[in-house]
Amino acid sequence: LRAKYAPIIREDDYLEGIVVLLQDVTEYEKLENMRKEFVANVSHELKTPLTTIKSYTETLLDGAMEDKGLATQFLGVVVSEADRMTRLVQDLLQLSNLDYKQGKWNKKEININDIVKSAVLKLEVSAKNKRQHFVHTSYDDEIYVFADKDKMEQVLLNILSNAIKYTAEEGKIEVQVQLKSSYVQIIIRDNGIGIPKEDLPRIFERFYRVDKARSREMGGTGLGLSIAKQIIEAHKGAIEIFSEEKKQGTRVVITLPTTNEGLALN
Ligand code: ADP
């Protein structure tokens, strides 16, 4: 609690009273701390690849360039670190767009199955490279939601690519679309490494990762889930993540209102 005082003094110097302003700053301080933490995280995440790029380039300049094989290997690292920075900046831009341009959605009535199909198609190659089984089932063909197509596809790409990343070779990834009365559920289930119980409550926070090293190795930025949550909530939906036990896999459930009934409502 923050307090401010101001005396009320009459012209003849008589103290008439005191105005006391009590302000609850807990929420403010919480936001301020989150902001500071975010800036610290961004700086750290950008600094890490920059340090690597600089040291590899210096080693090349110091003579490693003479060795063609070594030079190629080092340049490969430089490119992949630059790619990481690009991904991070893209995710940050996307977050900042979501923060500041809430109103600018291109929402239309769309069939959710079309979006799921197109996301699955885009990631099929990555799943195939890991010899994973990728299954998409839907009990109803026509399930309409009032949504921004690109943003919704982004959510699915984020969730599905996590499922692929955090599931071993030859694992199984299932996408199920189920129509309930006035809403639809998209369930993405994998039989990968799972998420420990103690990490689940914070998993949607920006930059929160169970295993930083593993996420980086997989090319993750730690922002995918927070972006997904923000988009889903802007569609009056919900996203939940379940993981029973270690190594039992992960289940992500996205719930969205449908326009199948009561079209006029929208
Ligand atoms: P990242 O870019 O690190 O994947 P995300 O925000 O997408 O960031 O996810 C945050 C963290 O949640 C990941 O680092 C990982 O630890 C965990 N996670 C997300 N999806 C899964 C999954 N399907 N299986 C296991 N862990 C997951």
UniProtKB/TrEMBL annotation:
Histidine kinase domain location: 41-260
Localization, UniProt: Membrane
Record protein name field: histidine kinase
Organism field: Clostridium formicaceticum
Lineage: Bacteria, Bacillati, Bacillota, Clostridia, Eubacteriales
Name of the encoding gene: yycG_4
Complete-protein stretch covered: 335 to 600 of 600
